[in-house]
Amino acid sequence: MERVAFLVDETGVRVDCLLNPETVQVTRLAGVRPRGLADGQLTGAGLADDPLAFTGGGRTELVLDLLFDTDLVEAQTRPGDVRTLTRPLWMLAENSAVEHGWLRPPLVRLVWGKTWNVPGVVVAIAERFDAFTGTGSPRRSWLRLKLVRMAESADQAQEGFADELAAATTPSAAPGTAVVAAGDGSAVPGYSGVRFDLLAHDALGSPLRWRLLAEHNRITDPLTVPAGTALAVPPVTAATTPMGGGTP
């Protein structure tokens, strides 16, 4: 398992995120638009709704909410400004690639463990800063990034989704057993260093099921679970309920 990252297809450059997303929102817009004429939109007189034209295709968008904090970086490499960490993500929205003579953002792949591998382009990014130093340098960033999936066939999309589900149903720990929380060596105030998403992957087969693991063990704040804590693996009936939320 690994933290979420963006791989630039053309160069192979890997842009890692400091932590896994707090939330991931996936939106699918079908290829549907109001039917129109050359001189304007066709009205639906006598109809309850306007006439529609079905154009095929569509648009799949992923919105990720990411947290960056210089205090979560190892002391030896800790930057003084959080923008040092987030600048590579901003560059993914710049027109740094060329296609048919036109500039465009680079094609990237959102990669997250075994269950996410989405090709697309970053079309929007926004960042809110806080925890400023006396010289005005921000130490914390709340970053929202929108990725639009690049065109692929419907069969490829279905196969990819089936692969994600298959990868998310093979936990390494049996129900009724326990997984032990291990720290990653980056414990700081307010964060124990325990990767709860990795625990959910081992216990329930997917990092997206971290909330199920937390609720089963009556944990309200996964970021403060001490290293060495034994967590009970939920029964199969609980593990197969719908997944929700992002990883901490």
Structure in words:
The chain has a seven-stranded antiparallel sheet with strand order 2-1-9-10-11-6-3, with helices on one face. The relative contact order is 0.15. The C terminus is likely disordered. It is of the alpha+beta class and 248 residues long. The chain contains five helices and 13 strands. The two termini are 14 Å apart. The longest helix has 14 residues. It is globular and about 60 Å long. It folds into two domains: 135 residues, Beta Barrel (Elongation Factor Tu (Ef-tu), domain 3); 62 residues.
Keywords:
248 residues; globular; 2 domains; 13 strands; two-stranded antiparallel ribbon; 7-stranded antiparallel β-sheet; Elongation Factor Tu (Ef-tu), domain 3; disordered C terminus; alpha+beta; single chain
